[in-house]
Design brief:
The chain is 5% helix and 36% strand. By secondary structure, it is mostly beta strands.
Length: 564
């Protein structure tokens, strides 16, 4: 079967997914799950059908190897890659052992910040769940120099958040605010401020992703709000689930949303957004955006034509059975530790899951999942929306951390109440004619795969232990063709072509909002740019006359006129 046929078939299969009716048959676009005759029946194979290769390819081009941070088996522990805002085009990458490095546009690696050297209590052992976990640049970094990090410290200091129950505190996770004296400098100089200190009952499943919504523009409620993935800290394994999890007033196993420049929190060092779901409903836990997770690992924002202007995806690493991809909504309960995937979880028998009760309610279930026949730990990438590999357009890229297998899902088809089958990509290096695997490339027992992105929409794949960074498609300078205004969170100049029935827009940033306005002030069309390759606006029904097209990105606007 040709790759083109598979690609078209994947997107034309209707209806997508599986309603939670226990339908057993697998058809393209449907996920087969076992049916149980009675609630509580043991399910030995949660997702019986193997993940299929879709016929789509992903080509990885070696970009750079990060210098060793140790001479142990794992020479590096790289974890997260994203671009620093500003005209430099620096890609930033952290190592869990405490270093934040920048990759310049000539592919040279420089140390930007040695967090470990600035933190007396810093720990990155015994590994796995310790060290410098993540970082995020404020949307206005180019002018204010502010960015944020999370890292682990020994059990000292006074935590702002403590478990409801514990068997002793293993360590602390710390959210820190850094302010660079010169945001354009090649290495950090400036100040630091501790914002939040979390006490953790275990050494794994700590703080994970740290990010801003890149689609929010100035004036939006979500602009400048910081999201933080807060793992459950081994609460379930330690028998603490009933006390620490599935509660909207417990920080463990949740996603936080805070205003990092505000001060109305209990410690006065950050703000609690007024539109958070539990504000005014409870006195504790108002930072929580969603809860009921085991180890929410990565977040992905993708443009949508809805009231918010985006969809938010989060992967949640499972325990013994199921890996989840979730569509996140404010205030919802995602089920851990009494649900795993679309099944009942009982920590007394962690090796299996059980069938749901008939009157099940109150939980939100994943939009896609796979079981441990296929992999052991899911990591989400981002939705591919650029022209480097057209076949991947609109696909949410995923990986399995351990095996290194790369997967994909059609992002626009993921909706609540349905399960979409995960499909596998074939991995090719550069111009190779035969596929490879990341596990074989790293020559280790774990591939430890992660994803990264830049402000132009290019995507990257990294392997943690050997320090390798790959670009998806040939490397493109993150600032080539982009004005300084774009990188300063401003609107980008755009181009358009007027055709008989459409207006073809190119050159606008993904996430830009557009309006077509008649001279009498009427808004005749509006929407969001969702594709890096451009957007087509249907204008066949417009009467003859002069119109203004206005493009806005993060508070900055540019305009042009056309005559129909």
């Amino acid at each position: 079967m040709s790759k083109l046929f598979i690609y078209v078939f994947l997107f034309s299969s209707l209806p997508f997914g599986l309603w939670f009716s226990g339908e057993p048959a697998f058809r393209p676009g449907r996920l087969a799950v076992p049916t149980a005759m009675m609630a509580g029946d043991t399910i030995f194979d949660p997702v019986p059908d193997a993940i299929q290769k879709s016929g789509l390819e992903i080509r990885l081009y070696p970009l750079v190897t990060i210098p060793a941070s140790s001479f142990s088996t794992d020479r590096t522990r790289i974890n997260l890659l994203k671009q620093m805002p500003g005209p430099s085009g620096n890609l930033m990458i952290n190592d869990l052992r405490g270093k934040l490095s920048r990759i310049d546009t000539s592919r040279q690696v420089h140390l930007y910040l040695d967090l470990k050297a600035r933190t007396n209590l810093f720990i990155d052992a015994p590994g796995k769940g310790t060290g410098f976990g993540a970082f995020a640049f404020h949307p206005e970094f180019e002018s204010n120099g502010v960015f944020f990090t999370v890292h682990t410290e020994s059990n000292n200091g006074t935590p702002d958040f403590v478990p409801k129950m514990d068997n002793g505190i293993a360590m602390h996770w710390v959210l820190t605010k850094w302010t660079a004296t010169d945001p354009s400098a090649g290495s950090f100089a400036g100040t630091r401020e501790e914002m939040i200190r979390f006490a953790y009952p275990g050494i794994i499943h700590g703080l994970q992703d740290l990010t801003f919504n890149p689609l929010a523009k100035s004036g939006d409620p979500d602009y400048g709000m910081l999201y933080l993935c807060v793992g459950e800290g081994q609460s379930s394994l330690q028998g603490l689930g009933a006390a620490n999890l599935l509660q909207s007033d417990s920080y463990l196993g949740s996603i936080f949303r805070i205003d990092p420049m505000g001060n109305n929190s209990a410690n006065g060092k950050y703000g609690i957004p007024a539109d958070n779901p539990f504000v005014g409903k409870q006195t504790v836990g108002q930072e929580i955006w969603a809860y009921g997770f085991r180890n929410p690992h990565r977040l992905c924002f993708d443009p949508r034509n809805n009231s918010k202007g985006y969809a938010l995806f989060a992967c949640d690493i499972g325990e013994k059975n199921v890996e989840e991809i979730n569509l996140i909504e404010a205030g919802k309960n995602y089920g851990w530790n009494v649900r795993e995937g679309i099944f009942v979880y009982d920590w007394h028998d962690r090796e299996h899951v059980l069938a749901l009760p008939a009157d099940d309610s109150g939980f939100v279930y994943p939009v896609a999942m796979y079981d441990h026949d296929e992999g052991l730990a899911v990591v989400s990438g981002y939705v591919f929306r650029n022209n480097q590999q057209p076949d991947l357009q609109g696909q949410l890229l995923l990986g399995d951390i351990v095996s290194g297998r790369l997967f994909h899902l059609p992002a626009d088809s993921l909706v609540w109440g349905r399960q979409y089958p995960v499909q596998e990509l074939e991995v090719f290096l550069e111009n190779a004619s035969s596929p490879t695997s990341l596990l074989s490339e790293v020559n280790r027992s774990r591939a430890d795969v992660r994803f990264g992105y830049d402000l132009r929409g290019n995507m990257y794949v990294t392997t943690k232990g050997d320090g390798k960074v790959y670009s998806v498609g040939p490397y493109q300078n993150p600032v080539a063709g982009l004005s300084t205004a774009v990188l300063a969170a401003s609107a980008r100049d755009f181009e358009f072509k007027l055709r008989e029935e459409s207006l073809e827009i190119t050159g606008a940033r993904v996430g830009s909002h557009y309006q077509l306005v008649a001279l009498d002030g009427r808004v005749v069309a509006q929407g969001m740019i969702r594709d890096l390759n451009g957007e087509s606006i249907h204008i066949a029904g417009l009467s003859k006359g002069v119109y203004v097209i206005s493009m806005e990105y993060k508070g900055a606007k540019s305009q042009a006129k056309f005559v129909k």
